[in-house]
## 1
Amino acid sequence: MSEAKLLEMSNITKAFGSNVVLNGVNLSVGEGEVVAILGENGAGKSTLIKILGGIYKADSGEIRIDGETKNINSAAVAGANGIRIIHQEIILVPGRTIAANVFLGRELKNSLGMVDAKKMEAETQKVIDEFQLNMRADQLVGDLSIGMQQLVEIIKAVSAEARIVVMDEPTSSLSEGEVQTLFRIIRQLQEKKVGIIYISHRLEELFAITDRIVVLRDGKMVGDIPTREADKDELIRLMVGRELSNYYTRNRHEIRGVSLEVKNLQHAEYFKDVSFYARYGEIVGFAGLVGARRTELMKTIFGAFPKAGGEILLDGKKVNIRRPQDAIDLGIVYVSEDRRSEGLILKNDVEFNMGLVCLSDFVNGIRVKQAAWDRMVEEYRQKFHIKITSPHQLTGDLSGGNQQKVVLSKWLAKNPKVIILDEPTRGIDVGAKAEIYAIIDELAAKGTSIIMVSSELPEIINMCNRCYIMCEGKITGELGEEEFTQEAMMTYATNREE
């Protein structure tokens, strides 16, 4: 790997009003080097990347590429300098082909000035074949899995002759196999001397693929460590500014009778003959790979998808759940894995989102019980340590961890019997994760029945009392906590029954 500094960001400072979000941050990336940026939500990672991408302008500091100072004042200028940012939220047109998406905004033309679709497909297929991906340039993006769409974003960046590629939480929607494909592509990019900035909360990935780890906290750079010298506990301490001795919180609680039981539940397309149970005070995990249909199962129980057969019992009595409101009325709530699209109304404030499910408790006709609403918001703000400037702050302006706490507050204000948590810590930092785990443990202590869907096996192992494993719409295994190992879970997760 060359020691040449492809990118240097020096003394970058940025404030929004009186709020200083970056304070003298330095970041360098060499040719063929993979540099991680690690930090809690709100540490300044996104702002730093937006400055590099020309979305924000730094108040002070300098950006140099190949030693030459650059004034990157727009996304177009960033692109012209070989900077490509692959965002966590996929930005593709589902109704168009892979090739059309790859060349979107820079379409190839023939001698008549017409868009040359065949040439774009050929050029795109070259990159696909180079990276040994199982896809065709003429496939519609909407027909691909979310994980494959993420890889299309990478093809799009590479085909534009990127020299510096930023990957923001690139594995959040990838299966284990797709993660390994991504790592293989990254190594191929390193051979081409492409510099890569890799943002992820998954520490295991950083140890597997990066050369250096830069740690941000409260807008300042607090660490720049060669990965081979890095220690997980030290990285966490640098991130949060304190020790997290009890990262996972699971105390011994009384487990009582069966709350929810599902018998031979079926969906016309996604799964069939699924049976399981959950008990009060118990945390039941659901593990599996992408495509296991865990989310579809939970949405069917919640009434968001129609069931094609089978029974759902609550407290031993059969219930008929035809829509989410039926489930909510029975005391069953579902916290979606997609908090931004399905869990929150981002353009409304925190107070509105927290009271959304319990609106009838605070609004009677045209009369608003504002004092009661305010008390509820303040109770959960204090209880969950939610960082907001006021209850009227827009929810979309909060960090991922604080957004997740608002979602939990919204549902817990309903005092549910059963709470289904679908990927409850996806995309949030280790400090916020530790707080979410403590909330889950407290709910179990109060006797709430908790079902937790998670793709992070350490999360299942350290938080759950029992675990069901799914593969392609079927439950292929059940493990008690004394049987928990990642190897056992992966064996069941790949146990395809014909």
## 2
Amino acid sequence: MLGILLMNIVGFGLPLSAYGDPSVAGGATGRNLVTWVITNVFFEGTFRTLFSLLFGAGVVLFTVRAEQRSNTVQAADLYFRRNMWLIVFGVLHGYLLLWVGEILYAYGVTALLLFVFRKISATKLLCGGLLVLAVLLPKRAIHTREMYDACDRCAQVWMIVTPWQYLQPWQRDAVCQWREIERNYKPTPVDIEQEIALHQSDYRTMVTRMATINRLVQSKWYYRWTLWDVFGTMLLGMALLKYDVLTARRSVVFYVILLVVGYALGLSVNVWETRRIIASGFALGELQQTQQTYDVGRLAVTAGHLGVVMLICRLGILRRLTAVLAAVGRMALTNYVMQSVICLLVFTGVGWGQYGQLERYQLYWVVAAIWAVQLLLSPIWLRFFRFGPLEWLWRCLTYWQLQPFLQRRPRDACPVVDPVASTS
């Protein structure tokens, strides 16, 4: 939950194209370049993947417990109601809190597919998850080929010494298509100024204008990219829970191997991609080419992160830190939405209007402040309340009745909880 903000903060505070290309906005030299390199090598895509793994594991935990308390039909009723409400939360989060990187909608829709897989063996889930994720490899290759073809068609048109008005319709379309691609990945200074002005405008204007982007993200973009990413990773999460990887019950040697192999492969791929992009001067072609190995790098580094976290849990060290982090995880939905609310107030015209005003490295001052607030408030809140406010609301809507909210007595400290159980 906290790690996701390391990447999301760029989308909150800078023009969207700057997320993967620091030369667009926020600075691409000095401390800004170092910041981009660190996040691109160590964190890009990894915390989102961890979150999806835990969500998939949570599907198994939720359905098992629901079926133990009632029959399968009632468990299915609870499960689908729970995820239909998550879809509603996602729509509200994206459209009203103006976060185009919103993931709750994708999780809710994808989770509707997972119920029938809950009792499949770990091995089949693992193989199925890897096969689904493997679909992304040819899709990225095809997308890259389409971009190069569009570039070639445009170049051929410009070689024709003919005034624009005499070009054939397909020739004009070729030029317009490539210009649109360039604007999406390499916006002009005018485009950037317009995007900054939009985010610094009034709330009604932002909601109206950004609704178009949200519709694209929750429809075409979801079915083309997000579905395969999230669905495959959730299946892996279900498998890893059944293999006892996510419960810290495997051996220390297992987690050390996971850590070493994951980082060795993943960091090698990510460093190679990063060096290639920088050497090209952040050329559009290189940015797109490195996407073809993106999933290999981020999945391997995620395995390394998972090895570190599970090794800490397995050895029982850093208990005070893990207790505080567990509290943040138990309030994952509340803290996720809280991050969006805070960033809405900090960066847009609703609040201080800092969108596009900070350099890339300065955005992480905001991250540190948000982390401090959530690490402080989450354990305190859970001393007095059973759930975070949004978790409580979600639970009430799922069971369709008011749920107990107050603790019977204040707790002296937040207990260390199973890192997976917090998602259920």
## 3
Amino acid sequence: MSMVSTLGKIAVGIMVAKGVGGLMSKSSGGSNNTGGGLGDLIGGLMGGKSATNSTGNTQSGSITDILGGLLGGGAAAGGLGGLLNSLSGNSNQSSEKTAQTDTANDPLGNLLSKAFGADESTPEPSEEEKAKIILKAMISAAKADGKLDDHEREQITKFVGDVTQEELAFIKSELDAPMDLDGLIQSVPENMAQEVYMMSLLAIDLDHQAEAEYLDKLAKGLNINPETANAIHEKLNAPKLYNS
């Protein structure tokens, strides 16, 4: 196994455990018609199986397709990575690069395609390191409401499956560790700031003041301005963090 594939499994577990509202509401009757709720689809999505939604339509066999549809693209690469490429001139990319949608120029999209099984090629060492950072960020964000009870921990690890002892130890260490947002912020490379913020938001159902304060501190620590943060929230169907 790899840390990249482990990222995909833990990401699913976190979104189910925390009942991430934006994704759940979109998947239960939004414009993408993805069916009766992300949680109901997980069992069929893991391992490349098909699932049937509440309208009787067969879902694609890859969780990438479901997440991609929920996040506004035809695949996870288009939905998440494409968002980063299109954000209002704050992404440190030229307008020419911003206009590109080719996944070859989309590091986050490539990483997520491997994490969620759409791309079975071997992850690069740099992708393994990036997956570790995003895993740390998502697990930290899952603690933002002040609790990570036994049921949530069980849900988060439910889909882990076949991982190495090293990967399992890493997951357990991150789940057991007290939240250290300052330490996380210091560990994030500048070119991963928006990726980390976006994936952290996917781990949060923004319905507690503590979660809003966590995201505000994360955004400020990663030098993400309010306009960019709000754009990410809007794309992921989450409440905006800042008033206009």
